[in-house]
Structures are given as C-alpha cells and as structure tokens.
Amino acid sequence: MCRDFKILIIFSYILCFKVFYINSKRSQLWKLSPDKTKIIKGTDPQPLLYPKEFSGKHSITGDPLFDIVDTERYGNSWIKHPQQSCLDCVEEQENDTHSKLSNGQFSETLDCGKPVNFTYFDNLVGVMNRNRHPVVPEPQAVLYFTKNFGKSKPDVKNFDIDALERRLKKAKRERPKSIQLYNQIGNFWRIKGDASKAIECFRRALAASPHNAEVLLSLARMLFSLQYLDDAIYLTRRSLEVQTPEKGAWQQYFTLGEIFKAYGHYQEASIHLRHTLELNPKFEPAHLALQEMEAIPTATIHMYTLVIIVCLVLGVLLVILSSVDNSEDIKPQRHFNKAMAMRSLKGISMTAKRCKRTY
C-alpha cells in the first residue's frame, strides 16, 4: 500500500512538471496598444545578430532593453553608454571597420603581450622606474640585427627600421611565445627609444628564463644608456656568470669596460676592454675605447696624487709652526724661573753673611 502511494506521488509530480513546462513554452506575450487603452497580444522580439567584430561590445541577449545599453570597463568601475540597436547602425559600423582595415588604420601592434607580474630583477631601480624613463633612442642597438655583428662595421644610417618591424611582426605571428623574439622586440624598442615597452619585453623573457645571458645583457645595455650604472654592472656580471663558454663573453667584457670608463675607473675599464680584444680582436669599438683612454693626459690621472701630496706638506708645515709657537710661549717662563732662582740664591747668601757678622 505504501509503495503504491509513493509511486502515485512521483507520477503526479512528473505530470505537474510536464504541464508547467508546456505552458511556459506556449505562454503568450501581452502588451499595450499604441493608444494605451487596452491590452493586445504581442509578438516575440527578434534577437539582434551582430557580427563577430562587435561581439565584445554589444550584448546579444535578444532583449531590446539590454541591447540599447553598451557597458564598458573603465578602471575599477563599469560605465554604460547608450547605443542604437538597429541593423542599419550595425551595418554602418561594419562597413567602417572594413574600410579601416583596408586602409591599414587597424595595424598589428608590435609588443610582447600583457606585462608579467614578477621577475627576479624587479628590485633594480631602473626596472622599477620603467614607466618614468625619457625617450632615449639607441641607434647602436641596430648592431644586434646585423649579420656580421662584431666582425665588421655595419651601416647604421641606412638601416631599414620599417622592414625590421615587418619582420618582427611576421615572426610574432609564427612563434608568439619565443624568448628570443621577446629579446629582439625589446631591442627594437631600444632603437625607437621607448624604454617602457623594451623593459616589459625583457621582463617577459626573464620571467620565463631568468638565466638567459642575452636578455640580461640587453637589459644591462639599456639601463647603461639611461645612466643606471650600478644596475647595469649587476646585470652584466650576472650575464657573464651564466654565459656559455662556446659563445664567448666578449660582449659582456666590452659592456663592463664601457661602464667603468663612464665611472672614471680607467684602469679597470682597460682590463675589461683588453679581455674583449683577446676574445674578438676585430671588434673596432673596443679599439676606439682604448685609444680614447690612452689619449687622456697623464697629469689628469695623477692629479689626485698631487693633491694628496700638497695636503700632506701643508699639514706638516702647520704642525711645525704650531710647535714653534708653543716653544716661544714656554721660553719666557724658563727665563723667569732662572731669575727667581738667582734672586733666591742672592737672598740666601745675604742672610748667611749677616748671620756670620752677628756671631
């Protein structure tokens, strides 16, 4: 009996659910008449079908009340802008988009994607201030894109930057997550002078490969051009530590030579530059840097020694003069003591004579 009762309850529940589902599918839409005097039957609104180009901006809900509102993200809040939900407007926007694409106004941007959250080199001052750097173009960064880099002097003035940009965009479409490509795009923005985009590319590469010697050296060269010398020395030495022996480290030694030359430490700079020429004897910039340091007059190098000697001589003279003054102050006191002693002796002798006479 209880079993039959449970079956009856389940059957009635299924039947009611089916009835409600059918009624919901066959529900009638009602609306007000144009003169707003009575209620008449309405028709289901047809959903507006937008093309794929506008799927990110418009909501395809089928409800005109939501389709006329365009909601966009701005900062930490949502801002709504009224839009016309008509097929004619959509067609006009679609035609405008196709015309801009055909005219080349919507071109592919050459970047390395979204900035990464963290790298092991974010504590460097030059990296922390990456959004505050001025525009400092580096034409010498063109050397990284020449075939005979380090062997012959390339023609930097006639280098085609636009062709390089097209090649990098093509390489980005083919292998968008390449660490070497991130390094090349960063060096491209070094040529343009956009430090923010270049550092973001180097950060993205270092986030994936923190021990990449080429990326570390590229970032060091850029911070050196921005006069962050301590950061540049740290990154160059780190690149020198992880550089593989078969590739050679002449670029790292040359960078260290240039940095120490900018510091004024000519002896240490010449040591690194000579290391560069030992590994790459035909590298002309190292020869020029050594010649510039050798052309500096030796008097300027020994100027500090001369200043120290003069200071020491003046110090010794001051000590001697002070000792002479003290001796002059002491001498009258000694004469006074002798005079007093003579007077005391004369007094004693006179008293002794007087005593003899009385006796």
From TrEMBL:
<feature type="repeat" description="TPR">
    <location>
        <begin position="179"/>
        <end position="212"/>
    </location>
</feature>
<feature type="repeat" description="TPR">
    <location>
        <begin position="250"/>
        <end position="283"/>
    </location>
</feature>
<dbReference type="Pfam" id="PF13181">
    <property type="entry name" value="TPR_8"/>
</dbReference>
<feature type="transmembrane region" description="Helical">
    <location>
        <begin position="7"/>
        <end position="24"/>
    </location>
</feature>
<keyword id="KW-0812">Transmembrane</keyword>
<dbReference type="InterPro" id="IPR019734">
    <property type="entry name" value="TPR_rpt"/>
</dbReference>
<feature type="transmembrane region" description="Helical">
    <location>
        <begin position="301"/>
        <end position="324"/>
    </location>
</feature>
<protein>
    <recommendedName>
        <fullName>Tetratricopeptide repeat protein 17</fullName>
    </recommendedName>
</protein>
<keyword id="KW-0472">Membrane</keyword>
<dbReference type="GO" id="GO:0030041">
    <property type="term" value="P:actin filament polymerization"/>
</dbReference>
<keyword id="KW-0802">TPR repeat</keyword>
<dbReference type="GO" id="GO:0015629">
    <property type="term" value="C:actin cytoskeleton"/>
</dbReference>
<dbReference type="InterPro" id="IPR052630">
    <property type="entry name" value="TTC17"/>
</dbReference>
<dbReference type="GO" id="GO:0005737">
    <property type="term" value="C:cytoplasm"/>
</dbReference>
<keyword id="KW-1133">Transmembrane helix</keyword>
<dbReference type="InterPro" id="IPR011990">
    <property type="entry name" value="TPR-like_helical_dom_sf"/>
</dbReference>
